[in-house]
Design a protein that fits this description.
Length: 327
């Protein structure tokens, strides 16, 4: 018995913000952004909601899976940017999809969120005897960006992806490696401390409240270590079976570094950062869906998903890809 991905989908916002758009608002250049990150454009939410994107990507995943949505017993959304602080994004999607009974919850683990969500879904499916689960990765990170800070606003985008998991005969998800350590230096933080009642002293509030603050070079160093550590652990745990890697898309240079250090050719890493930038927890399910629909991901491939991000968190998992070839 195993747990496999039997359907996937993704939905991006309509609005495309190119590097030229960014040149208009901060002191940056198309050349700098491409050279230092590999990003050419990103999608940003304008008149959509994150719930709409997450619902549409889930509908597409359910269609591919050819299941009755009422069979879904668990909905986990990896996100930290739900349209409503409560209910959870997973509950909003459950409502929009009209799933009468399921366990909905959000999971916040930064850009590693989707890996954590898949691992959590697998454990709950096994312990609570759930046959089918919907796992979403969705983030609306642009609402937390400081559009005057060129060091961060050029790096991120919005989007959503989803997969359907099912228990069955095929192996599907294999080895799982999760890890985390305290962000002592506060290298990647969105501060939410604020006065919430009349007696609280506002002088303790952070001036950069609600804005993403990142120490780029420190995060870069952490990310390079985390991605290589995760690939090496997964190789060790799976007996070096990994053929292709779908990594978190934070910077093309981090992926190139991982390719060199792990001695896995760059062509075996899926890369779409040029189109979407870093979409946080949405990155991996978007990449999975595109990699399959473009024909890069083929039936029988032994793949590894690898993520890293705020927390600090990192981790990955191996998956035997069981869906028939899309093209
Ligand atoms: O998903 C969460 C994980 N996030 C990450 O993994 C991100 C990790 N960090 C990075 O990818 C890179 O550190 C960045 C892309 C954020 C920055 O690249 P870098 O090569 O480390 O540049 P830097 O921060 O060392 O800055 C180099 C120069 C600085 O100018 P000075 O001080 O040398 O004059 C920056 O002010 O580049 C400048 N700079 C920019 N210039 C034009 C920084 N951002 C920009 C910009 N446009 N957007």
């Amino acid at each position: 018995m195993g747990i496999s991905i039997i359907g996937c989908g993704h939905k991006m916002p309509k609005f495309v913000a190119t590097n030229k758009h960014l040149e208009e608002i901060v002191d940056t250049s198309n050349e700098w952004i491409i050279k230092r990150t590999g990003i050419k454009q990103r999608r940003l939410i304008t008149d959509e909601t994150l719930t709409e994107l997450a619902t549409q990507s889930s509908k597409d995943a359910i269609d591919i899976a050819q299941i009755d949505k009422q069979d879904i017993g668990l909905v986990i959304a990896a996100t930290f940017t739900s349209d409503t602080s409560t209910p959870a994004l997973a509950s909003n999607v459950q409502k929009e999809l009209g799933i009468e009974r399921a366990i909905p919850m959000d999971l916040s683990a930064g850009c590693t969120g989707f890996i954590y969500a898949l691992a959590t879904a697998k454990s709950l499916m096994e312990s609570l005897d759930i046959e089918t689960a919907l796992v979403i990765g969705a983030d609306y990170i642009s609402k937390y960006l400081d559009w005057e800070d060129r060091k961060t606003c050029v790096l991120f985008g919005d989007g959503s992806g989803a997969v359907v998991l099912k228990r069955g005969e095929q192996k599907g998800i294999g080895s799982i490696y999760l890890n985390g350590k305290p962000d002592v230096e506060e290298v990647l933080v969105i501060n939410d401390k604020q006065a919430t009642h009349p007696w609280r002293d506002a002088k303790h509030d952070d001036k950069r409240i609600h804005k993403l603050a990142m120490k780029g070079a420190e995060v870069y160093e952490f990310a390079c270590g985390a991605i290589v550590e995760t690939i090496n652990k997964l190789k060790e745990m799976s007996g070096s079976q990994i053929k292709k890697i779908i990594p978190h898309q934070a910077n093309g240079r981090i992926i190139r570094y991982a390719s060199i250090k792990s001695k896995i050719p760059l062509d075996n890493f899926y890369i779409n950062i040029q189109k979407y930038a870093n979409t946080s927890a949405a990155t991996l399910p978007i990449a999975i869906d595109e990699a399959w629909k473009e024909g890069w991901l083929k039936k029988g491939d032994q793949i590894a998903l690898v993520g890293f991000g705020a927390g600090l968190t990192w981790g990955g998992m191996t998956i035997e890809w069981n869906l028939p070839n899309f093209v």
